[in-house]
Amino acid sequence: MKNTKVTLVPLTAEDREQFILDNQWSFKYGAMQEFGERDDHIDGDGEIISRSTIERCIDDPQNETYRIFAEGKSAGGVILKIDKETHHNHLEILFVSPEEHSKGIGYGAWLAVEALHPETEVWETCTPYFEKRNIHFYVNKCGFQIDQFRCEHFQPEQETHDDEHDPDEGPDEMFRFIKVMKGS
User: Which of 78, 94, 160, 86 lies closest to 126 in space, CA to CA?
Assistant: First the structure.
């Protein structure tokens, strides 16, 4: 397993626009690889993940946003929602630029995230059902387990804001992953 050394650099105002564009391209690339240009998961603006979703994540005061650097150049990004009371944290967004895939950068970034927040008891994240590459990454590389499959038949026991789905925002079928950290 590749373990590429990466650095997480806090997002600056100057890098914000490029971060958004890189994020959208990364998600769109994955959908196009799976479905081609005809993809009905792409919204009216031609994106899998909307600008407003990314901006909402960046602007949330509970979130931390970082650029991922490998070998001195930008290679992706990550947004983390950190709950300082419960230590149940959420990986909102993790993306690696498509031209940097299969170099261990995503895994190196995940190791850096874990090192950044050793107090975490549980990590949670979601990914669209069609993102086989992401499912493999979270389960086989990072040690997450699939906890739920959210689809039209999914009825959560307890409604949370995470269970709400904006019909204009990406696919409505998602896998939710959790990772219980050792010692938790």
Answer: 94
